[in-house]
Design goal:
globular; binds 1,3,4-trihydroxy-5-OXO-cyclohexanecarboxylic acid; alpha/beta; 5-stranded parallel β-sheet; about 160 residues; 5 strands; Rossmann fold; 6 helices
Length: about 160
């Protein structure tokens, strides 16, 4: 008697593959809304993520978020993002110090937009240099929370 084999349903999403964006927030950004509000504003990280999620949804793009205060965890997250189509990153203070984050971004070779709430070029001397800017697709800074939204719209426009 012939054995009845369960039919395997292979799901391929070719042609309907959604653009995937990863948003990575560095140290102390979990404190947005209460941290130096004269510089960073009163919008919380949860509110920023919610708005970005809405923007992504309206453009039929899938988006996920990660925040860490630890450099190693940020590097791990970037390494795990090799399947993403694009990255939005505010590396916060690590922007000015981390060759490891730069190397991780170059290793996965995913196009990324660097964002900052404040204008790092107009602040203390030690903030003027970024280890990411020269390899970023684009840098958006100085617009408060809007830097993230502008960066996201520009990245989506580039990818789609
Ligand atoms: C920041 C600017 C950095 O210099 C600072 O260390 C931050 C936030 C910004 O978004 O303006 O933590 O990346």
């Amino acid at each position: 008697m012939q054995k009845l084999m369960p039919k395997r349903v292979e799901k391929t999403f070719q042609g309907s593959k959604k653009t995937k964006i990863k948003v990575i927030h560095g140290p102390n950004l979990n404190l947005l809304g209460q941290r130096q509000i004269n510089i960073y504003g009163t919008t919380t990280l949860a509110e920023i993520n919610k708005r970005m999620h809405a923007i992504a949804q309206s453009k039929n793009v899938s988006i996920s978020f990660f925040q860490s205060n630890s450099e190693g965890e940020l590097v791990d997250c970037i390494q795990q993002s090799f399947k993403a189509d694009g990255i939005i990153i505010n590396a916060a203070a690590y922007t000015h110090t981390s060759i490891a984050i730069r190397d991780a971004l170059l290793s996965v070779a995913v196009p990324f937009v660097e964002v900052h709430l404040s204008n790092i070029k107009k602040r203390e001397k030690f903030r003027k240099h970024s280890y990411l800017s020269d390899v970023a697709l684009k840098v958006v800074m100085g617009l408060g929370a809007q830097s993230y939204y502008r960066g996201l719209c520009d990245l989506i426009a580039h990818l789609t």
